[in-house]
Amino acid sequence: MKKTVLLLNALLFIFLLSMPFSVSAAPVKTPVVLQINDYYVLYTFPKAPYVDQNNRLMIPLRAISELLGSNVKYEAKHKRATIEMDGKKLVVYVGSKQIEINGAIQMMDTVPTIHESAMFVPLRALIDSFELPVKWDKSTGVVRVESDAMKNNERIVHFEDSDVPPKIADNNAILPISYRLEMSKPGKGKLTSGTITVEARNISGKAILEGKEDLHLVYFFDHTMATEMDTSTTDVEASRERPARAADERFTLEDAFASGQYNENLQYILALGRTFE
Per residue in 81-134, pLDDT tens? Predict the structure, then answer.
């Protein structure tokens, strides 16, 4: 009897080994390294901002430039991009350290690259060219850029017009540290959907009472926007749990999202780290 059981177990083991299966890779943990005004920039199409081998913060040129409020023109034939804002002009070239700021040639210490047809450039080039106020927080590794022109960005205006939170106590009480993103690909007759898990920390310097935390995520697609409701309406009930958070506490927020139309790319995920009164 014992030999029969061992033989059956061996046959079962061989059968399981012969069956086809696949293992899905875990979502990559991506650090949050950029903030524009009060908005933390989590995801940008086609890839989030990253730090290159020269320790320079690289950004997707079109995505970030549009958020900052500038105009971008890319000439594929010459591998050249022109960015204009507030009467100033910056010209950058793929694979070259040379840039032109209002016609004057200067040199960078790293080169723009192409990823999935998008040009990535060092953020410093935009900061210096357009004289944008910037602050680097050494303790968090986040670069904060101030841009008055962002207030005129159509996507931001649309969100802020529809954003009806309770009265805000602190716009910079919560720091998104990193995130993991899983997302479907756009397709004909398909909504782009996914889930995101954000690791965050209470940086307000005090405890956050129950119901007052608002790590608020905003998803911008090609033509539509998605975000949670902070207050209930006649059509939508605000149901997210908001437990109390101790001072300096780390916590995670999981959220699901979907585009409003078929076959849309996700362009941005922005986050506000605020609290309610």
Answer: 999 998 999 999 999 999 999 999 999 988 999 988 889 999 999 999 999 999
Q: What span, in angstroms and rounded, lies between the C-alpha atoms of 28 and 106? A: 36
Annotate 119-140 with b (16+ C-beta within 10 A) or e (fewer). Answer: bbbbbbbbbbbbebeeeeeeeb
DSSP secondary structure code for residue 149 in this structure: G
Distance of alpha carbon 82 from alpha carbon 34, whole angstroms:
22
Which 8-state DSSP code applies to residue 187? B
Q: What is the pairing mode between strands 142-145 and 34-36?
A: parallel
Residue with tokens 């450039």: 121
Verdict on whether the full-model pTM lies above 0.70: yes
**CA 51/CA 199 separation, integer angstroms:** 19
* CA-closest candidate to residue 148, choices 63, 60, 69: 69
pLDDT digits (tens, 9 = 90+) for 35-69: 999 999 999 999 899 988 888 899 999 899 989 98
Helices and strands in the chain: count of H runs, count of E runs: 4, 21
CB 257 within 8 A of CB 194: yes
Strand extents, DSSP E, 18-69: 29-31, 34-36, 39-44, 50-51, 57-60
Whether residue 63 contacts residue 45, with contact meaning beta carbons closer than 8 Å, is answered with yes
Q: Is the sign of the CA dihedral 126, 130, 132, 136 positive or negative? A: positive
Pairing of strands 250-262, 98-101: unpaired
User: Quick one: which H or E segment has residue 144?
Assistant: strand 142-145
CB 84 within 8 A of CB 92: no
* Structure-block tokens of residue 96: 């070259």
Q: What is the residue-wise DSSP string for 55-83?
A: S-EEEEHHHHHHHHT-EEEEETTTTEEEE
Half-sphere exposure of 33 (CA within 13 A, CB side): 17
